[in-house]
């Protein structure tokens, strides 16, 4: 690991279905596991799915660039080629999108490709793609450097 990795633990109601989703659909390598939880390497970050009996994963949505963005959500920022490859794999796997893959904030410093989907437990995920992730992630259109 070359830097700080983010750790996120989320609730899932069907451990086996979510194991297939994160492992096979998203291609995340599996780490440690126990009877009721599994670690995944989520694009260089530690994601732990914890099996629970019930969970509330949807607090609503918020309008962003004309789309209803599910809240809460989590995800990862990728380069555009990585994002395009991921989206192609998601489409091939028949994943249903909450917000279809598209470009937003066109012509701004924060222009990005994005899509939203839910895992089998209902947790919302966002995948973003930037032409220059390091330069654009926190860029503003203020003109200040």
TrEMBL record:
Specify the domain of life of the species encoding this protein. Bacteria
Positions of the VOC domain: 4-130
Q: Which PROSITE patterns match?
A: VOC
Q: What is this protein called?
A: Glyoxalase
Naturally occurring in which organism (per UniProt): Abyssibacter profundi
